[in-house]
Design goal:
Order of helices and strands: HHHHHHHHEEHHHHHH
Shape: globular
Helix content: 40-55%
Number of strands: 2
Number of helices: 14
Largest sheet: 2 strands, antiparallel
Strand content: under 5%
Strand order of the largest sheet: 1-2
Length: 330
């Protein structure tokens, strides 16, 4: 969903979006919630015969349809049918279903608790969506080395130093994609740290190790100086168009190098590089509370998943014992 599409949402949803913005909710979360609520009210309009069937859900102006009277008529059964529609018709998986459920429930909580426009949240009578907890995918150390060596040896790439530096920062510091793209030259301090802006526009200090400092120093010698737009002059990473590098360009760069080194079919992505950094640090005795601060997690529970990775490795190691399949005769 694009930011401009929010203007076609019901006015109360737009009001809710502005409330999320005041709380400095991440832009991606806002757009996901807006998209979920647009689908919800499209379904409700179809279910209550306000709209004819066959219209594309993402091209309808819902503003004149979903007023407060319409919203007050939505029941728990309506909400349950919406989740069934998403599961059975749209084929949404458990994670997507859970996100849609949370988006709608929080919107109705906003109308009930904050705005006092409803007496009851219709989703309070619903069970949440159960999602299976999966361990994060990450690159083993050998794959990290292979990936970095592949970039290092790509002499035909005029942005080799930049791309190498980007991957080194991801793999050593556990940055989010948005955090890396938003780094400015002024964020790099003389005490071997860099300031990054995390979720909710919260700043945190990231410490740079020797590999990061060396990669940065080499990249800065090649970083373009001329022809930059005024708003991009302070950006650390510059694109081939001499603008601040955008997230999609970074994703395409990683895809290219994963293909070059034969790692393209292993489910690796930019976010998996963040998981990799966290997993490697935990495996090398960084405690979970320190890891929480490094990654900029709000809740320790989010960081606990890396302890499960280590436990799984212990379980797998036991299975590799050559005596694991030995059986005694009855």
């Amino acid at each position: 969903m694009k930011r401009d599409d929010i203007a076609f949402l019901p006015l109360l949803v737009q009001d809710y979006i502005r409330a999320l913005e005041r709380k400095q909710t991440a832009e991606l979360t806002i757009l996901e919630y807006a998209s979920d609520l647009r689908l919800f009210f499209y379904y409700m309009a179809q279910r209550h015969h306000v709209l004819p069937s066959g219209l594309d859900w993402d091209e309808i102006d819902l503003q004149p349809i979903a007023d407060i009277a319409f919203i007050r008529a939505i029941s728990t059964e309506d909400a349950e049918d919406f989740i069934s529609y998403c599961r059975n018709v749209r084929g949404n998986n458990a994670n997507t279903l859970n996100r849609r459920y949370v988006a709608v429930r929080r919107f109705f909580r906003y109308l009930t608790v904050r705005k006092h426009l409803l007496d009851k949240n219709p989703l309070d009578g619903m069970d949440g969506i159960k999602t299976a907890k999966s361990l994060p995918v990450y690159l083993p150390l050998d794959d990290c080395v292979l990936l970095l060596n592949t970039v290092e040896q790509d002499l035909s790439n005029p942005f080799r130093e930049r791309d190498y530096c980007i991957l080194v920062l991801f793999l050593n510091c556990g940055l989010r994609l948005s955090e890396l793209c938003n780094i400015n030259l002024a964020d790099i301090a003389s005490n071997d740290t860099v300031r990054v802006r995390g979720k909710g526009s919260k700043d945190r200090t990231v410490y740079l190790n020797a590999a990061c400092l060396a990669a940065l120093e080499r990249y800065l010698r090649t970083r373009p100086q001329d022809g930059l737009r005024h708003e991009d002059r302070d950006a650390l990473f510059i694109s081939r168009n001499k603008r601040r590098i955008n997230p999609r360009s970074v994703e395409l760069m990683l895809t290219k190098y994963l293909q070059l080194c034969g790692l393209e079919n292993r489910g690796y992505s930019i976010h998996k590089l963040r998981h990799t950094a966290a997993t490697l640090m935990y495996q090398n005795n960084v405690d979970v509370r320190t890891l929480k601060e490094i990654l900029g997690h709000e809740n320790l529970n989010t960081t606990q998943i890396y302890t499960h990775v280590a436990n799984q490795q212990l379980a797998d190691a036991v299975q590799q014992n050559p005596l694991a399949n030995l059986r005694t005769e009855d």
